[in-house]
């Protein structure tokens, strides 16, 4: 069963997206299997964030098909794009977690409330259940003593670990990270990358946009190199970094 269709958590087919006249995604095909860690690399402006935003319902595509956890978010049949109904979209949203570059914690909520809010109000957990989940995750992130603090009293690295705990709390099928360490200095980056590495060991399915090349090489199963709205090259992480095939990939990697 290991290569059955059911093992595919995310499937994006022929995705197109423009902003006005600017074509940002120009026919992207991406499949992510259960337990797989996929790193997306590439120069700034290449469409990486837009791709994640389309996968996570923050942007609408213009064309193509997206399936998450077996549910069809959108499809294009005979050239006509349609999105699923609101109820299905809500279900799809509960299947993934999202971690942004700038943490995006609610500044007026404590750490604990940042993590429990969606559990209680979206996932309908009791307060006690939500707090148990929250405490377990804060332990795992080494942040249990910060439960009652506000985000502004935490370092960037701690805030990002809270944001990862929040993403994990709802037990998602897949987590998307958009440059999770690019707002952090090298010391704090290490702590966040260690947490993501541990999640990879636990076989959490993850898509990570990153500029940390050695991290991508060592932790990802597969690397996708995007430039100009297309996937230029993809392959097993180690092979892509050490032996890129396309000239454009070679040039990009030479900068690291
Ligand atoms: N909401 C938007 N409106 C207009 N242009 C946008 C918007 N979001 C992104 N873009 C443009 O799309 C291109 C790709 O951006 P982005 O997906 O953020 O790339 P990356 O994450 O790879 O740096 C850039 O030229 C960017 O300016
Ligand atoms: Mg980006």
Give the arrangement of secondary structure elements:
Layout: E1 8-19, E2 22-33, E3 37-41, H1 48-55, E4 63-68, E5 71-77, E6 80-83, H2 86-93, E7 96-99, H3 111-121, H4 127-140, H5 156-169, E8 174-178, H6 186-201, E9 206-209, H7 213-219, E10 222-227, E11 230-236, H8 237-242, H9 247-254
Helix pairs in contact: 3-4, 3-5, 4-5, 5-6
This protein binds adenosine-5'-diphosphate and magnesium ion.
Please give a structural write-up.
The strands form 2 sheets. This protein has a 6-stranded mixed beta sheet with strand order 7-8-9-3-10-11, sandwiched between helices. It has a 5-stranded antiparallel beta sheet with strand order 2-1-4-5-6. The chain is α/β, with parallel strands linked by helices and 256 residues long. The chain starts with 7 loop residues before the first strand and ends with a helix. The mean pLDDT is 96. A hairpin with a 2-residue loop joins strand 10 and strand 11 (230-236). The chain is globular and about 50 Å long. The protein has helices spanning 48-55, 86-93, 111-121, 127-140, 156-169, 186-201, 213-219, 237-242, 247-254; strands spanning 8-19, 22-33, 37-41, 63-68, 71-77, 80-83, 96-99, 174-178, 206-209, 222-227, 230-236. Magnesium ion binds at residues 48-49, 178.
């Amino acid at each position: 069963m290991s290569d059955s269709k059911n093992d595919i958590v995310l499937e994006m087919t022929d995705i197109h997206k423009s902003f006005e006249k600017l074509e940002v995604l120009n026919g992207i095909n991406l499949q992510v299997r259960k337990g797989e860690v996929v790193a997306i690399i590439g120069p700034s402006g290449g469409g990486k964030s837009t791709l994640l935003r389309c996968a996570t319902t923050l942007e609408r595509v213009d064309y193509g098909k997206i399936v998450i956890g077996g549910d069809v978010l959108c499809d294009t049949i005979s050239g006509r794009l349609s999105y699923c109904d609101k109820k299905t979209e809500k279900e799809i949203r509960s299947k993934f977690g999202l971690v942004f570059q700038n943490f995006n914690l609610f500044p007026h909520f404590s750490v604990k409330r940042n993590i429990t809010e969606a559990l209680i109000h979206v996932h309908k957990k009791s307060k006690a259940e939500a707090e148990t989940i929250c405490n377990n995750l804060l332990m795992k992130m080494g942040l249990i003593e910060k439960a009652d603090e506000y985000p502004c009293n935490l370092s960037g690295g701690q805030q990002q670990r809270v944001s990862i705990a929040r993403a994990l709390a709802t037990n998602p099928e897949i987590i998307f990270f958009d440059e999770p360490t690019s707002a952090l200095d090298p010391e704090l980056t290490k702590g966040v990358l260690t947490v993501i590495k541990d999640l990879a060991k636990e076989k959490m399915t993850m898509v990570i946009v990153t500029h940390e090349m050695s991290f991508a090489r060592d932790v990802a199963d597969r690397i996708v190199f995007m430039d100009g709205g297309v996937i230029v090259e993809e392959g097993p992480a180690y092979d892509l970094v050490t032996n890129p095939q396309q000239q454009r990939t070679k040039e990009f990697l030479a900068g690291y």
